[in-house]
Each structure stands twice: as structure tokens, then as C-alpha cells.
Amino acid sequence: MRTNNQAYKNFTIQYPLERIAPLNKVLFVDIETTGFTAKNSHLYLIGAAFYQAGSWRIRQWFADRPEEESSLLTEFFAFASHYTHLIHFNGNNFDLPYLLQKCKQYDLPYNFDGFHGIDLYKRVAPYKFFLHTPNCKQKTLEELIGVHREDIYNGGELISFYHEYVQKPQEDICHFLLLHNMDDMKGMLQILPLLAFYDLFNGPIKAKKVQSNSFVDYHGHSRQELLMKLELPTALPLAISTLSNSCYFSGEKTEGILKVPVYEEEMKYFYSNYKDYYYLPDEDIALHKSVSAFVDKEHRVQANAANCYTRKYAVYLPQWDVFTTPFFKRDYKNRELFFELTDEMKTDRSFFSRYAQYLLSKMAKTY
Fold first, then answer.
1. What are the Cα distances from residue 107, in Å, to 1, 40, 41, 102, 110?
2. What does the alpha-carbon distance between residue 32 and residue 181 come to, in Å, rounded to a whole number?
3. 182, 199 Cβ separation under 8 angstroms
4. What is the pLDDT of residues 281-334, one digit of tens each?
5. How far is CA 207 from CA 28, 134, 224, 345, 357, in A?
6. β-pairing, 85-88 with 26-33?
7. Phi and psi, residue 332, nearest 5°
8. How many whole angstroms separate alpha carbon 236 and alpha carbon 68?
9. What is the pLDDT of residue 187?
């Protein structure tokens, strides 16, 4: 078994990782194997990135022979015991289960119970639509933010390289095996700024300015919109924009703009306990029986779920589910929900901050 070390003295992470944990308590990990299942393949390399003495460093444990797997595991877990936070890319699905299976295979007492785990893939993948990328593979995300790799192979291609190395050790083959893992480790550090999208949709967001705008749409109709200028929690590494359910968002660095359609019209509030109401066809409203009992029987009928409502002309904003109550609808079967924009809300900046966060979370889940 051999150990390889590399220091990056002029390298800085373009993300406030300190929000998650002290830098000297964070460990990045990535493994290289000859297959997907621990039982039928070999673990030949473990890479770890860590912060020490003012710079980021990468350490690699490499097995010259498959028989050195146990030593590889022992060395890695002894080193990892000094850290509290483990960061990986899709490690929940592969790296960590694989390592645990290998520990069980060799009857080693190691596990990840004492670590706080962060899977970069799982934190970024839900927002693929906003990134306008076909997938969220690590190399794809690296290309998205302009990362250049020296490594030209993928993990699958390097399996035959390792088998060849075991049969006839050669330094040039070892170089390619180490380089691939080294670039994976560096790549994880370099794509960390994409966590800003996780922060964007998980808040908190601050509405700095809220105003109402009028405009003429594509069909020549006069429309109204609510425009919110937002302060984002973390600087975005990429400028983004998207339209979803008639809501438009654009963001660049720490500033965002969210445009929401405003509807000034008559809508209906439906009472849930319709058995306690009469519907008055002439008035097109429902009244509680304690009040409508005095109405002539010829002008009232037992209310049902579809006609048990009151009507109100007001200014409304959309909500994709129940963000706030009471909620209004255009018709009973209409799935679109709205809430009244009251005078009290117009002066409540914290309300609009929560509303902006709500809309962004819904826009992210739409795709």
C-alpha cells in the first residue's frame, strides 16, 4: 500500500463552507473500485480532501494489490476519526455503503455513525431544471462552472488499468489511477459553489423591495404583476432565469428578481361545512342556516360543496397549495388557489420574504 499527498496552497473554495462546519472538521471522500458490489470487486483507492495549515490538501491511499484492502480501510478510518463532517458526491448510494460492506467483509469495527454527512449530488440534483443541464453527474457539473480536468478516463475504463497494474506494476498506469481520483477530489471542491442553489431554495431569502407594475402582454392585454427584489443567502456561481406557473425568477450573484402575476377580479371562498349552509340562487351566495333560515324557502336550497361560497372582488396573488388562508378559487373544480393581497400584507416585508421563499420552492419542485 502506498500513500500519496498533494497540497494546494493557492486554492480557495468559492463557497462559505464555514457555515456547515469549521474547515478543519470537514473531510471530502471518494473511492475507486473494480465494480459496484463489495462482495464481487476490489477497493483499490480511497481519496480524501481536507484543510490543514492554511491550505487544502488531498491524501490518497492506494492498494498495490487487492490483498491490501484491509490496510486501506484501517488507514482511512484512523485518519477520518479526527473529522466530524463527511462530504461526498453520490456517496450515499455508492461510496459509503461500499466501504461499510468491505468493513463487514474484513470484520473491521468502522462505521460512519459519528459523522454528519453531506451528499453534494443530492443537494444539487433537485434543481437541475434551474441549471439547464441534461444531468447532474460530477463531470457535467464541473463543465458547467468551467472546471478543466487533466484526467481523460472514467472509473469504468480504469478498472482494466488496475487489473493490468496488479499483474505488472507500472508507474504510468498508477499515475492515471491516482490522477482520476485526484481530479474527482479537486472537482468536488470546485463545484461547491453550486450549493448556493440549495441555499437559494432553502432560505432564508430577504425581500428588499416590493412594488406593483403594470404591463401589456403579448396579446395586447393590460396586466399587473408584483415585482420583488430579493437578497439571496449565497452568491450564485451562475446567472439563472426561469418561468414556471406564470412566475418568473432571475438571479445573479446575491440579487434576485421575482415577478408574480396579480389578479384583480371576483373570486370565491368556499365553506367546508356546507351542510350548515343554504344557497341563495338569486343572490348567488351561501349563508349560514342561522341567518338564512329567515329567507323564504322558495329562495333557498340546501348548499352543496360546489355552491357553498361567498364572492369577493379584490386583488389576489397565486399560491400553488395553501400558503396562507383564507384561500380563494375561481370555481369549485378549479385547482388554482389564490389569497387576497390585503393592505396589512402590503406593508409587511417579512411576509413577502416568506412568500418569495415559498414560490421558489414550488418552482423548483415543478420540474
1. 20, 17, 17, 8, 9
2. 7
3. no
4. 999 999 999 988 788 999 999 999 999 999 999 999 999 999 999 999 999 999
5. 35, 31, 19, 13, 9
6. parallel
7. -60, -45
8. 43
9. 96
Q: Domains (ranges, CATH) in the chain?
A: 2-199 (3.30.420.10), 203-271+308-365 (no CATH)
Q: Looking at the predicted structure, is the pLDDT value of residue 76 above 60? A: yes
Q: Within 10 A of 137 (CB to CB), how many other CB atoms are there?
A: 15
Task: Provide the 10 A C-beta neighbour count for residue 54.
Answer: 8
Name which of 314, 331, 196, 214 is nearest 268 in CA terms: 331
- Are residues 328 and 271 in contact, defined by beta-carbon separation less than 8 angstroms? no
Q: Is 354 left (phi over 0), alpha (psi -120 to 50) or beta?
A: alpha
C-alpha cell at 295: 329567507
Residue corresponding to grid cell 474484513: 106
Task: Report helix, strand or coil for 124.
Answer: helix
Mean pLDDT of 22-45: 96
Q: Cell for 236?
A: 450564485
Residue with cell 404591463: 215
Nearest 10 degrees: Cα torsion 106, 110, 113, 115 = -120
State the DSSP code for 135: -
| Locus of grid cell 488496475 | 162
